[in-house]
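TASK: fixed-backbone design
INPUT:
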């Protein structure tokens, strides 16, 4: 039996469906506070919501799948997804559920309720990651929250992909704006995306993972150096990004831009292959000696990608903080070569991975790279 990792977007229907049954005033209250954090609500409002939540749990009958489907959009999707497998003990023990809710009082409350219901159904692993700012109250806040969501997807989901596991995005619930981003992220991280319409007899719609649009990859290839710097935290002015698709960028100040959530997703998924096949990147503050170019050409493709990634880290450090940022970068471990510290100028080196090193000399604000290769080879003839 394969293992499922189910990522569900969570709206407020668990609470709002019951509120509509209870009274018009309760329904109106929930609509008015939909985007509010807990600290913005008074005690009476929170008490009203808490009482509704208690009533939701009182109505749960985990043996009645028809009732569960009517309770909320998220449960409708999950019950339809699992079918008869919902009651298989091995399935409940094996599968993992992530609940993605907005950073609001109602969003968090709904995720808590859904988690309790899933635990009552017997699922052992239900996780509710939180993303500060993930609310549609303002564009900037929502954008920041989406960036954190993208980082989470890139960090947490790839380890779940294996021949014996399946990543499923259940996008039945939540706000349309969040669903739209999750649908896009699902094209990269999910094996399939599932939806269902609200009609009681509606069937589950399954969308398989789709290939990346070729145009997006070509946009990366044509702007590899600039996008690589953006991916490592460098802000670039409009003249530097004029050839980069707008969807990859987010304004940051009056004339600068940073990488958008979509740009980050495409970069994280495609950069390794593009860096391996690209010529040496032209980067600020970095020059290549002929010996370095020769060494680089002799490397295998996976090693080239790792070297190019290290060069982007070094260039980004030099742009943002100069040599101090470079020497303090914990991933590069920049240091002087003890055996050549009396050279004029001294020879330094930094790390690509456990095995590969790059030697260099500093010439003013320029880092001139000399050799690249396995640790012993590069450092013995720097």
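OUTPUT:
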């Amino acid at each position: 039996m394969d293992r499922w990792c189910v990522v569900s977007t969570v709206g407020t229907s668990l609470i709002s469906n019951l509120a509509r049954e209870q009274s018009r005033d309760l329904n109106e209250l929930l609509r008015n506070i939909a985007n509010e954090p807990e600290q913005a609500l008074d005690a009476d409002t929170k008490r009203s919501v808490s009482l509704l939540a208690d009533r939701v749990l009182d109505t749960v009958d985990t043996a009645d799948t028809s009732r569960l489907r009517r309770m909320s959009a998220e449960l409708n999707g999950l019950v339809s997804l699992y079918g008869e497998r919902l009651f298989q003990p091995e399935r409940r023990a094996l599968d993992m559920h992530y609940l993605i809710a907005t950073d609001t009082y109602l969003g968090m409350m709904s995720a808590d309720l859904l988690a309790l219901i899933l635990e009552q159904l017997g699922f052992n692993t239900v996780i509710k990651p939180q993303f500060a700012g993930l609310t549609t109250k303002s564009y900037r806040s929502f954008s920041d929250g989406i960036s954190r969501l993208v980082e989470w997807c890139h960090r947490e989901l790839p380890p779940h992909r294996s021949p014996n596991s399946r990543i499923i995005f259940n996008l039945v619930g939540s706000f349309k704006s969040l669903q739209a981003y999750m649908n896009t992220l699902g094209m990269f991280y999910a094996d399939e995306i599932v939806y269902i319409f609200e009609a009681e007899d509606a069937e589950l719609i399954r969308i398989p993972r789709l290939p990346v649009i070729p145009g997006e990859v070509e946009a990366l290839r044509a702007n590899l150096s600039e996008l690589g710097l953006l991916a490592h935290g460098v802000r670039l002015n409009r003249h530097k990004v004029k050839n980069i698709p707008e969807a990859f960028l987010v304004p940051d100040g009056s004339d600068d831009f940073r990488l958008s959530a979509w740009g980050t997703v495409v970069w994280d998924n495609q950069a390794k292959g593009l860096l391996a096949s690209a010529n040496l990147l032209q980067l600020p503050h970095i020059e290549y000696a002929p010996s370095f170019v020769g060494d680089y050409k002799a490397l295998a493709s996976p090693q080239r990608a790792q070297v190019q990634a290290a060069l982007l880290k070094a260039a980004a450090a030099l742009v943002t903080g100069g040599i101090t940022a470079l020497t303090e970068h914990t991933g590069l471990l920049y240091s002087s070569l003890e055996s050549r510290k009396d050279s004029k100028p001294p020879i330094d080196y930094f790390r690509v991975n456990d095995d590969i090193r790059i030697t260099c000399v500093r010439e003013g604000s320029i880092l001139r790279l000399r050799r690249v290769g396995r640790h012993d080879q590069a450092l013995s003839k720097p």
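COMMENT: The longest helix spans residues 301-328.
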